Amino acid sequence: MLYVQNLAFGRFVLLLALACASLFASAWHTAAGAKDAKKPEPARLSYHDDTPDGKKSIGGDGELLSFSLPEGSDNGGKVVGIRIHGSRYGLPQPPKEDFKIYFLSQDLSETLATKPAPYSRFKRGPEEWVDIKFAKPVEVPKDFWVGLDFRAHQTKGVYVSFDKSTDGSHSRIGLPGKEAREAKLGGDWMIEVLLAP
Predict the structure, then answer these.
(1) Least enclosed by CB within 10 Å: which of 99, 101, 121, 142?
(2) What is the CATH number of domain 43-195?
(3) What's the pLDDT score for residue 143?
(4) Contacts of 134 (CB under 8 A, 6+ apart)
């Protein structure tokens, strides 16, 4: 009789242990899945086929690129960052300074926002994508411009790539307070705008 009771108790303990193990595994899997779940990617605005056809640095001026928010955009025109395809030139150590990112009105007459970013984000060597994320989104109207000012000269600057798969109608050269002029790239700057998801 005692043997039968011990056997029944042993089965009970075994079943309890298996149930606990199953619950633990399920909880761990759920937690791991939640941890690995990715946030929605920002929508990207751009004019390129991801293959650069050249690069250019603008001394005394900057790169300008026009954008329009997509029809029916429901993010309220919030820009969370930009991407720039380029590389730094000059001394091996990057300048201990920031370059400027400007957001400008459609007619280029008004500076909507200015964001600094460290020069050190760019490496010397082959051009590559550099992501610049903003701590606080920039609100933009339906049509706007993005401008870059690297204060480039012969021994300091960034080569920004351009792509000839477009007609170049979106690109200009200029800075806030200066008249913009034709970029003459035969294409458009490889600059992307990242919109809030």
Answers:
(1) 142
(2) 2.60.120
(3) 96
(4) 79, 80, 81, 115
Q: Is 122 exposed, middle or buried (0-12, 13-18, 19+ CB in 10 A)?
A: buried
Q: Which region, left, alpha or beta, applies to residue 96 given φ > 0 means left and ψ of -120 to 50 means alpha? A: beta
Look at residue 178 and give its three-state secondary structure: coil
What torsion, rounded to 10 degrees, do the Cα atoms 187, 189, 195, 197 define? 70
pLDDT range class, residue 147, cuts 50, 70, 90: very high
Contact between 142 and 72 (Cβ < 8 Å): no
Phi-psi region of 29 (alpha: psi -120 to 50; beta: other; left: phi over 0): alpha
Q: Where are the domains of the chain?
A: 1-37, 43-195
21-70 pLDDT, tens digit each: 454 444 444 444 445 456 677 789 999 999 999 999 999 999 999 999 98
Distance CA 99, CA 122 (A): 11
- Across the chain, which distance is largest between two alpha carbons, in Å? 100
Alpha helices by DSSP H, listed for the chain, are 2-36
Residue 19 half-sphere exposure, CB side, CA atoms within 13 Å?
6
Which among 141, 183, 179, 161 is positioned nearest to 46, based on CA atoms? 161
Say if pTM beats, i.e. exceeds, 0.70.
yes
